[in-house]
Design brief:
By secondary structure, this protein is of the alpha/beta class. The protein has a single domain (about 1-230), classed as Vaccinia Virus protein VP39 (Rossmann fold), CATH 3.40.50. The chain has nine helices and seven strands; from the N terminus they run αβαβαββαβααβαααβ. Strands 3-2-1-4-5-7-6 form a seven-stranded mixed beta sheet, sandwiched between helices. Strand 4, helix 4 and strand 5 form a beta-alpha-beta unit. It is globular. It holds the Pfam family Methyltransf_11.
Length: about 240
């Protein structure tokens, strides 16, 4: 991310905590931005952490939730959360914990997809994502629908953080092959089968051909993400 690199080019970040790190994909982005930084990644999902450790053997990964960080105050120069804000049961609790463990004057980086002002191909991605999030919620997993761009910025400011910059990031639209379309349909069906015994099953089953038709008509493009860089105010 060029804008991210430009922002941090004259700043020193010796330590960074990546919250909701998953398989460590955002750490890979941050490694291209930051030099000589010691990364720590935390996530509640052990299977994802195992994948992250394979991809980044030089990073310390820990099984932990963002709402309760087991680090002393002012431990890190910066903290980040990428594509995980909509998984949080309490956004403000996690942001407050991230603020606590970042040194005054340090930074928080939020990378999150948003739900408004999307083109038809991006709406296909959103519909798939919301299909999965509904299945997860029916199974007792915290997976909220995506925020609007304004709601993401509002949550950052509500946490008492000072926004330094915010910019959008997009990936290219792709035209799925028939095999890729069939594969996506199969994944949706696999998700649906997780709620076969629930009353919502039949209504959600009707969504699959609608998503399939939209995918064939419009193609697929990841929903736009906003990257917010905010600073932790000094006392």
């Amino acid at each position: 991310m060029e804008q991210l690199q430009q922002f941090f080019k004259d700043k020193t970040v010796k330590t960074l905590l990546d919250v909701g790190t998953g398989t460590g994909s955002f750490i890979a982005v941050l490694k291209e931005t930051l030099n000589n930084t010691q990364f720590t990644g935390i996530d509640p999902d052990k299977a994802s952490l195992e994948e992250a450790e394979k991809a980044h053997p030089d990073v310390l990964f820990m099984n932990m939730t963002g709402g309760q960080l087991h680090f002393p105050d002012s431990t890190f120069d910066a903290a980040s959360i990428s594509m995980a804000m909509h998984h949080l049961p309490d956004v403000q609790q996690t942001f407050n914990e991230m603020k606590r463990v970042v040194k005054p004057g340090g930074w928080l980086v939020v990378n999150e997809l948003f739900s408004n002002n999307l083109n038809p191909a991006q709406e296909v991605h959103k519909s798939m994502h919301h299909f999965r999030s509904t299945i997860d919620r029916l199974n007792g997993v915290c997976h909220n629908e995506t925020f609007t761009r304004a709601e993401i910025l509002e949550q950052v400011e509500k946490a008492g953080l000072e926004i330094c910059t915010a910019f959008n990031q997009e990936k290219d639209r792709v035209e799925p092959t028939p095999d890729e379309t069939a594969e996506r349909k199969e994944k949706l069906t696999e998700m649906l089968n997780q709620i076969k015994d629930k009353p919502e099953y039949h209504a959600m089953k009707k969504q699959i051909p609608e998503i399939e038709n939209a995918l064939k008509q419009h193609g697929f493009q990841m929903a736009t993400r906003v990257v917010v860089i905010a600073t932790v105010k000094k006392d």
